[in-house]
Every structure is written in C-alpha cells, then in structure tokens.
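Can anyone check this?
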Amino acid sequence: MDSVAGRIVVITGGAMGMGKLYAERAVAEGAAHVVLLDVNEDALAATASELEAAGGTVAGYVVDLASRTAIAKVAARIRKDVGDPQVLVNNAGIVRSSYFWEHDPARDIEPTMQVNTLAAMYLTRELLPGMIADAGPCRILNIASAAGTVSNPRMSVYAASKWAMIGWGDSLRLELVKAGHGHVTVTTFAPSYISTGMFEGARGPLLTPIMTPEKATTAAWNAMLKGRPLLMKPWTVGLGRTVKGLLPTRAWDVVAGKVFKVYSSMDEFTGRT
C-alpha cells in the first residue's frame, strides 16, 4: 500500500496528540473518509472541523473506549454511516504511574487495561470481518510501547497493557496469514517516550532521546503502509529487548538500572494534567 487514498480510515484517540497527526496524514493522502473516535467531545469537534477545512471528509464519534458496549455501538454506526474501513489505527491510550500497590483498581488498573488493550481488541473484532471480506489491502496499526518489551518500576499496569498489545497483535498477524487473509496486515509500533505531554517528566534512558510526535507518527505510518510486523523506535528499544533476552535476569537488572537508567526513567513522571 502506497497510501490510504480512497480508503476509509478509523483512528482511536483521534482528537489530539498523535491521533490527530495520523488523521492529518490520512487527509493529506486523500482518504475517502477519516473516522475519529475520542472521549473528548470538544477536542473531537475542533479537530474534525480543522480537518474538513483542510479538505478531508471526516466523521467524529464520541465514545468511551473503556466500554465494550459503547465500542460495539459505535462500530455499528461506522458501518452504517460510512462503510467498512480498510485501515484501523488503535492509538488511544492512558498511563498511570505509581507502585502497583498504590494503584486504585477502579481508577487506575481497570481503565488502563480497558483503554490500552481491550478496546483495541474489541474494536478490531468488530471491524475485522469487513477487512477480511475486502478484496484490497487492509491495514491495522497498533500503538504499543517500549514498556511492552522491558519491565520498568512504576509502570507495572501500563507495561502489562502494552505487553498484552504486542502479544495479541503479533498473534493476530500470524492468524491472518495462516487463515489465508494476508491482505490484512498488522503492524505493532513500540516506541520509547514521545513528547506528547502524556509522559511529562519522564526521562529517556541512555542513548534514547525523547521523540517528537511528528517523527514517531511518520515512522509508524510508513511501517503500516508497508505492512511491517513490528517497529521499535529509537534503535535502543530493539537493543534493550535483545540484550534482555541474552542476559540472566539479575545481570540485565544491573545493565538496565545502572547503565541504561531504564529503571529510574519514571522517577520524576508527572504526566498530562
């Protein structure tokens, strides 16, 4: 796939941040429809208006991605109002940072797992049959995290949600190939920290600069178009994953904690207000 021209693109968390950047790319490439899903009604309306002014055909739906029922309803509306999409970007995510025993189950654990992992599964399950039935190339882009490749203190629940995203996405990729639906590809993007405000206060590990949203979305988008299975950015994310697999756990703890400073990267985290 060279572009999303003429295709229907669905983006979760599309009202702001990286989701908005993905939407801008879709409009610039001539997508037939760009469908934005977000819980922030005001931001959603503003972004949809801005994209329409730039020449896009945009539909915005306010939806709580922590609700499986809400996801099923909005998926039905998308199919009715716009049609079956060929591109799905599972971008929406939240982060909570504290020691695990300080997490509140209702405020922290459940929303993190629901929005970061289950929402992508439920929405993909709703839209995937239409992609499988489509004769042309279709794409699924899952936004995971480097936190899904290496453990990190003060990120236990967030890391769990992203480990699950990586495992599920790659398994789905293999299932599609095995079942003969290779025209539907799954790309998983696992970046380190990105300067969207979501990880305000976090410090990049050694040799790992905090990426700009523009650079991150460009890399992820291009990987999606090519159908690349996994993209880790910057290069130190892949290095860390490899070294972790080679070293005994205690030795990796020393390298990650003392050398790369991974284990202290969230010590000054404040997040988005």
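Reply from J.R.: I decoded it. Helices lie at 17-28, 41-53, 68-81, 105-133, 156-178, 213-226, 235-246, 249-259.
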